[in-house]
């Protein structure tokens, strides 16, 4: 069983369906970042168990939103619909007066943000960067709400081409243009890129000829510029995938476990040691974000099969439970300020962007 194919909650599919309907109907003729005049700056806070403060982020006037990434400055990016149901790559910034500045960057989805505030996203098969009020085309490729990253130097990691089976690639920035370099596959037949850190290390997962999945890492070649060396992160018996890494090279993701036939979230330390993070009492979990101090977030099931976001540190997993009116939550990213972003979904499938402030 492969977690990314069979165990993912319905939340992930919701975003893809919403965006697909938008792409066919609308193209942004002026994709310049600006503060939306219809932004709802009011937000709801509830005191969650353990002193966690949960904020439901405002939308661009619509009913659906998702928060997918946050940098150490607290800037959040993701997706929101406007009052007409059109979906936009979205950026949220908390102001000193407690209100939210919410900006539409352009039609599409914003999937990542680097420490300098440069935003990565996509519109159809176009990989895009938004920076200082302007939109830049990186190239043709395949990103999703869980695939693709950008580091401080502006190097983008993703999959080149217009389909999910496209080759892994890195786009290296020079001024406001990018050059694509294909990442090696070795003996693997296909690979999906998850993200890149500021040292230029890229992680993801690859498939061999036996349809087995492996967590992999591409490390910059010290002797050749714009060249990466492929290595397998874990040669164990599981079916593994890597979804994020921090500056120290610690990697998180998940993999199939034979213990209960489910999937478990894992931390691979830079030393190579693998640690299983457990679950919230159910069959499955996976990790999606890791901070510089190895604080980890992701999603897991409880004993009743409900999917909830989690926060893990030093062996303890904490539930990021949904507020009233929501059936499940999903934690996507965490920064050094103990701020976690993600989304909640209602029983009818409506998603809302969430921010958890941890104590």
Overall 3D form: globular
CATH superfamily: YVTN repeat-like/Quinoprotein amine dehydrogenase
Count of DSSP strands: 30
Q: Strand-residue fraction?
A: over 45%
Mean pLDDT: 85
CATH level 3 topology: Methylamine Dehydrogenase, Chain H
Structural class by SSE content: mainly beta
Helix content: under 10%
Architecture in CATH? 7 Propeller
Describe the largest sheet. Answer: 8 strands, antiparallel
Account of the 3D structure:
The chain has 359 residues and is mostly beta strands. It has a single domain, classed as Methylamine Dehydrogenase, Chain H (7 Propeller), CATH 2.130.10. It has helices at residues 3-7, 10-25; strands spanning 34-35, 44-47, 53-56, 61-70, 76-82, 87-94, 100-107, 109-113, 119-123, 126-131, 134-142, 149-150, 156-160, 167-174, 177-182, 190-196, 202-207, 213-220, 228-232, 240-245, 251-256, 263-268, 274-276, 281-290, 296-302, 307-313, 316-320, 328-334, 339-345, 351-357.
